[in-house]
Structures are given as structure tokens and as C-alpha cells.
Amino acid sequence: MELEPKPLPKDLANLLKENKIEIFNLSFEGGNDEGCLDISMYPTPKVEGVLEDLTDKIQDWAWDVYSFSGAGDGNYYGTSIDYDLQKSEVTVRDWYDVVQRVEENPVVMPLKYKAVKTTKKK
Q1: What angle do CA 11, 62, 7 make, to 5 degrees?
Q2: Strand ranges in 1-122 using DSSP code E only, listed in sequence order
Q3: To the nearest 10°, the Cα dihedral for 66, 69, 73, 74?
């Protein structure tokens, strides 16, 4: 497990529950020396501005408590963390995407030559 799940602050949990959020997901992604974080919530808040406000609060908390640099060798990897407020559970899934070169069967063809005119020196 790349990232150990961190405890959720009570005030943030209460705010999410007040807005009827059952589950939220932190999706960390890296591999090219840059860490990214995407946040999703279920159900998605319908009231204008609430989704953005909750996302900002979750993001501020997540970047404060999780250490994720995204450093790597160009192969993408990450960790997805689901906080289930209904079941009081946290599910962590690590993933990686190794880019692999695949070569098809070679095609062998005869080498062709093109005649080149040469000019004679006088």
C-alpha cells in the first residue's frame, strides 16, 4: 500500500454528512515527477457552489496529511482512497500502468537501389 489512510477530521466529516455525502474518493496519480489529486463525491452535491466548496476543503486537508510527490520513471501509478461515511470504512487501492513496447512481426523486403548520375570532372 503506497499511502496509509489518514484519519478524517470530525468537522470535515460532519460537514460532508450535513451535505448528504456518503462516499468521497481521493485519487492520487503520479509517475512523471508531478503528483496530482482528483476528488469525487457520491452523491454529487446539486446545490450551486457546494461541490466546489467541499472539494476545496477536502483538497486542503488531503494535501496537508498525505505525502505524495508523484516522482517516478515515466510509468504512471497512483492510489485511490474511498472514504465511506455510511459504513465508516476506508478502502485503499494502489494501481500502476506500465507502458510496454510491443513489436509486431517484422516485414522483410528486398532492398532496392536507385542509380545516381555522377558528373565527370574535366
Answers
A1: 55
A2: 23-30, 36-42, 76-84, 89-97
A3: 90
Residue pLDDT, tens place only, 45-98 = 888 999 999 999 999 999 999 988 888 888 888 899 999 999 999 999 998 887
- Residue 18 vs residues 13, 22, 57: alpha-carbon distances, Å: 9, 10, 14
Please give the Cα distance from 80 to 30 (Å, whole number). Answer: 12
Which three three-digit cell numbers place residue 49?
Answer: 457552489
DSSP alpha helix (H) spans, 7-118: 10-18, 50-65
The residues, any chain, with a CB within 8 Å of residue 28's CB and separated by 6 or more, are 2, 3, 35, 36, 37, 66, 68, 70, 78, 79, 80, 81
Measure the CA–CA gap between 96 and 79, rounded to whole angstroms. 9
23 beta partners:
42, 84
Say if pTM beats, i.e. exceeds, 0.85.
no
Q: Is omega for the bond preceding 5 within 30 degrees of 0, making it cis?
A: no
> Are the CB atoms for 60 and 9 separated by under 8 Å?
no
Question: Which cell numbers hold the place of 20?
Answer: 448528504
